[in-house]
Amino acid sequence: MDKPKRTIIDVDTFILSLPDDIQSITMVLRETILAASPALVEEYKWSMPNYSYKGLVCYLQTAKKHVNLGFHKGNELVEKDINNLLQGSGKTMRHIRITKMDDIQSETFISLIQTAITLNEGEFND
């Protein structure tokens, strides 16, 4: 039995439209996000890939020279960010800026994504 497809065409199209270096980073980040949990749902909202589970979890925001792995409840992840990767000073959102493939820390990113999922489950405890 085939596994259900977890990616959507809108995000495929978006990624294919990116410059090669940003496209490569975005593809690896997408794979990393989806590896964090089989429950995550990929969506295309606000002109960027978003991932949700019982609410918004994270997103990929691209720019000319970097990709942000953003967290909708990033302010609640700061204490769990042992590598101090999260940036931003907004009320709730935080992001990790990735400028090159070497910046990708898959295990660390997966841990933060899983913590963000737990926040949406309402089971986050210190």
From TrEMBL:
One short Pfam family name for this protein?
A: DUF1801
Q: Which Gene3D superfamilies match?
A: 3.90.1150.200
Q: What is this protein's record name?
A: DUF1801 domain-containing protein
- What is the protein's species of origin? Psychrobacillus psychrodurans
Annotated YdhG-like domain ranges read 24-117
